[in-house]
Amino acid sequence: MSVAPSDEELNSAAIILRSAHPSLGIGKLLAQLKLDNPEWSISEKRFKRFLPRPSSSSSEKGQGDGEVNGGGSGSGSSNVTEVNQKDGGLIAQTGIDTFLDIKQIAPKVKVKMFKDGKGKGLVVREKLQMGEMIWQEDPWIATNDISLTQYLTSREMCSQCLTLFPQPNPPLSVPCTFCGEAQFCNRLCYSKAVKGSSGHHDLLCPGQNKEVKSILKLIQSKQNRDLQAVIKIIAKWRGEREWGSSSARKEIEDRIWNSMARVNQRTKEEERREWPFIAKDRLEEWRLTHLLILNVLNPSPSDDNYKPFQRLLQSKKSRLIPLTKEEEERWFSFESFLELLGLVGLNQESSGGLYALHSHLNHSCDPNVQVRNLPKGWTPPTTLPAELPPPMTAQNRGTNKLTIIAKKTIHPGDELLVSYVDQRLDYSERRERLREQYGFYCHCTRCKKEQVEYSKSKA
Ligand SMILES: [Zn+2]
Ligand SMILES: [Zn+2]
Ligand SMILES: [Zn+2]
Question: Are 254 and 99 in contact (CB under 8 A)?
Answer without folding.
Answer: yes
